[in-house]
Amino acid sequence: MTDFFETSVGLPYGWAWFLATIIGILVIALPLMLAVAMIIYADRKIWAAMALRRGPNVVGPFGLLQSFADGLKVFLQETIVPTAANKGLFLLAPIITFTVALIVWAVVPFQPEVVLADINVGLLYVLAASSLGVYGIILAGWSSNSKYPFFSAIRAAAQMVSYEVAIGFVLISIVMWAGTFNLTGIVEAQKGLYGFINGFAFNPLLFPMSIVFLISSLAETQRAPFDLTEAESELVAGYQTEYSSMSFALYWLGEYANVILMCTLNATLFWGGYLPPLDWAPLYAVPGIIWLFAKILFFFFVFSWIKATVPRYRYDQLMRLGWKVFLPLSLFWVFLVSGVLMFMRVGI
Amino acid sequence: MIQAIAFYIFALVVLLSGAMTIASRNPVHSVLWLILAFFNAAGLMVLVGAEFIAMLLVIVYVGAVAVLFLFVVMMLDIDFASLRAGFVRYFGIGLVLAVALVAEILIGVFAWDAGGIELSRRAAPVDAGVPNITAVGYLLYTRYLFIFEAAGFVLLVAMIGAIVLTHRERSGSRYQNIARQVARRPQDATRNVRPEIGQGVQL
């Protein structure tokens, strides 16, 4: 698009690039907001169906406009800032969560060549941005100056830091196999496994890591069964307890944007991203973005399914799973994968 | 043009937030200013083309180290008055350290300007085509392999040392046996009884 503004409109390169980037950001962020609204509806419907309930069915046809009605409701509410709160940080915290949930989308490839920022450290950028996500929660917990949010913030910080370690090692295995940190490169490296199938998860060596990554991504987004940060039986609403109105809605949006992002990462890193599942020419006639969306929706269904069926973990079980199971397993897998690669590609 | 604007914004924010780290009264605010400084320093790294170092700075310092700082500072009950009390006492030594640091930087700059340093001895700049992850990885795992691994061992020793120093066995602790918890079956733990009216249940 930079070329279009430079040649057709006749802008200098700097401004052409600037305009093209702004438009690219809007093209990703605005549909994402719509997707978040619809995915909240889908989550509630799936959850209701599994509990043999109807779910939202009043606002609009099939209740499709429920999220918009909720959005309007919180928008019209009064923003309440507790007197004991640290005002600046209290209002900054939801903005951080929401922004961080959006910026990672810059490196997600939607189709070959269709990516906002095709940087060669794409995966590290994802890790860096997701490691910022914890600040929104810690700051909310601390600045609320209230007990439940503070406990929740401490839980969240410990949980996210623990599972980031496992996620880091899983990503190292993937990067070694693909030989690049660039997300488009990783997707392309999954093409034609055994000559007919696309996706690292079909490789028996990397399949266990895809499971570890799926479970860790549940923990990283604080979805059930790892939603201890907002365990209502112990902590009221966790770090969001003191929030109301739009500041609460920003957490809501950020949380679901993060969930969609984690579904996208699962799809992109292990299940071939925008590639069709089989390496068969007619399937490539379908645009890559359709395949990507289908995979995202599949993983979102899995997330909802788990939320509807699995009981919440105890906190010590959560920590044990992160540090005593996933960390040694993924660390061992890094050695295993690098050993296999040395044997296969370099030779002893 | 855009690079220059970006550089001045990043540099200004680094300097301001560095100053605020020292000046702010609340230690939690200090840590947050420090995080802002780290983050903008990462922006500067991106501008000079060291995107790998920039991402590492964010992942390691912002994502891990600063979270731990924040954790500790939030949990500690810090007495601000006693922190302020030492200001006059440590002012002299602080000033000496600051002067020494500035002097060292100046000496470094002047020595570089004076010439006489053989340019071929400098670390070779990386080809523009090679991503700097590849370049750093290649150097670390070939030429500096032993130094790199030695650094790893130093960290390992430091970690084990910290654990050995702080770990103490408490008597009378009871541990969970996870395998037993997992292997527990409903029929071992529960009993289905139908007591007669007025009889109750034998436990």
Which secondary structure elements does this structure contain, and how are they paired or packed?
The complex is a heterodimer of chains A (348) and B (203).
Chain A: H1 2-9, H2 13-50, H3 66-76, H4 87-103, H5 122-143, H6 147-178, H7 183-189, H8 207-220, H9 232-235, H10 245-270, H11 288-309, H12 315-346
Chain B: H1 2-23, H2 27-47, H3 51-75, H4 80-85, H5 87-113, H6 132-141, H7 145-166, H8 178-183, H9 186-189
Helix pairs in contact in B: 1-2, 2-3
Structure, described:
The complex is a heterodimer of chains A (348) and B (203). By secondary structure, chain A is mostly helical. Chain A has one domain (77-347). Chain A is 67% helix and 0% strand. In chain A, helix 3 (66-76) packs antiparallel against helix 10 (245-270), helix 4 packs antiparallel against helix 5 and helix 6 packs parallel to helix 12 (315-346). The model of chain A has no long low-confidence stretch (mean pLDDT 85). The longest helix of chain B has 27 residues, at 87-113. The radius of gyration of chain B is 28 Å and the shape is elongated. The N and C termini of chain B lie far apart (82 Å). Classes of the chains: A mainly alpha (348), B mainly alpha (203). The A-B interface holds A 14, 17-18, 89, 119-121, 124-125, 127-128, 131-132, 134-135, 138-139, 142, 150, 153-154, 157, 161, 164, 181, 316, 320 and B 1-2, 28, 32, 35, 51-52, 55-56, 58-59, 62-64, 67, 70-71, 74-75, 131, 133, 176, 178. Chain A: It is a multi-pass membrane protein. Chain A: Its EC number is 7.1.1.-. Chain A: The chain crosses the membrane at residues 15-42, 89-110, 122-142, 163-187, 193-215, 249-271, 283-305, 325-344.
